[in-house]
Amino acid sequence: MSRRILIAANWKMNGSFAVNTSLLQAINGIQIPLIIAPPSLYIASVRQQLVGTTLKVAAQNVAAEAQQGAYTGEVSAKMLADAGVSYAIIGHSERRQYYGETDALVAQKCQRLHEFGLTPIICVGESLAEREAGLVQTVVERQLTAIIDQCGIYALAQAVVAYEPVWAIGTGKTATPADAQAVHQFLRELVAKYDKNIAENLYILYGGSVKADNAASLFAMPDIDGALVGGASLVAKDFLAICHAAKTSVVG
Ligand SMILES: O=C(CO)COP(=O)(O)O
Known about the structure:
The active site is at residues 92, 164. By secondary structure, the chain is an alpha/beta fold.
């Protein structure tokens, strides 16, 4: 199997029309599969600026509700599809931590995306306390199984999984390539118990302080299919270096 690579940029709550435009101009020529997740207010503008490129746009979140209606502040999967958005991040640890999102809620969000043909970027990952308690596999298995139970294994045929250890996000601490690989392999084997083909074709990205100087060693791992990049995706030169490492890591 030849290696695939996918890079996703999670801009989180950063940017402005002017800042986004200059960042997009700097990264526009990148020749690898790339997804940009701006704050929802900027999705239409970013998408417009990416016309004619291979870059795709993602939302950072989606409503769990099935029907439109009185849900102040929410954006539905149907609206994202209407706006030409093809991906949405769900289950990010910041949403789990700061907005109380549970496994069940994340699974509902996955269901909504599935219904409207959007590809979820499903984030899983353990906290530092959970890692120290030896619960890494227990936690990521629980998080991913909640999705499989709700949406069915075939939903993962059109999905991306991102392993983001909470203790590595925005901290400058990265999982070692070997530690990350072990979790990625565990996740792929978990999916393979349901369907080998889906497991083999599933993109499993690593996220958590991916930088220009650690990207290549992460991408060298057999089950790391790219990265979900936060802070470094906001600095053109750093992001370009990560994309370059991704491109040179692809074999076959
Ligand atoms: O949360 C992340 C991507 O979703 C990772 O963020 P950092 O790259 O800033 O650690």
